[in-house]
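Reference record:
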Amino acid sequence: MLSKKDTVRILITDSGLGGVSVVAGIDSVLESNKIFARTEITFCNALPSAGFRYNELPDAKSKAQVFSGMLEKMQELYHPDVILIACNTLSVVYQLTEFAGKTTVPVMGIVELGAKTIADSLKANPNSSILILGTETTIQSDAYRQNLLTYGIDPSVIEGKACPNLESEIQVDPSSDMTANLIDFYIDEVSDHFKNNSGVCFVSLCCTHYGFAKDVFQKKLDAICKKAVIINPNATMIKTFAATTMLALEKSTTSVTVCSQAALSTEERESIAKLVRPVSIQTADALINYVQLQGIFR
């Protein structure tokens, strides 16, 4: 059990900086509840280079090969006791990796957690519907829809919408005009979803970056729908991790490290750090002063 270890090492990974929000949330939970005696949280950006995008690789197999190799290196470098994939795209890809078939480390993916939250919300609200927003890989995989079907959700109330390049714009500046324009454009493309539903219209932000622009999404949704409610799987991952490890120690310490082989621009780091600082100062500082890895991932 994790609670019996002197030091618990948590590895959190994402294809970009969206998962930093999960790092901040978990650090805040650990600070408030003193769950472990000592915790080392490492966030590792799963991009081998700044221009690399999983969504631009030709097929699922090639995505899985890259991510599997990176996970093997991450495990070798950081010796985690648990791995959190704070990325919808990589949670989908993970199931296809060689790493998934041989690791003994517990791995928590965000897609399964998000789908459970969506299903619970739909069941609690008759005549409701769900719009799933995500990257091309997440939407094309149909992973959320398939998970929802296992919970008995009517497929007619499920709609998915891919939002190409939105995560990149949010990482640079979630409050920019470009981010707002892209959100307007993608929501407008599925406006019929809201017109055709009389109940609550749930909208799930199924890319960890999207949560940073939650207010922008909400403003757009409020303009076209009176009953639009946002679901953020990031919050579900934080809550689930806390619930499965809850203790109450008198004293605990936590450290946070952010590392990336891909260079992170000052603009990106400052933009995201500003957003997570109210939740976790330690996470914001770790992002600003990130560790750049050299020649680790190919």
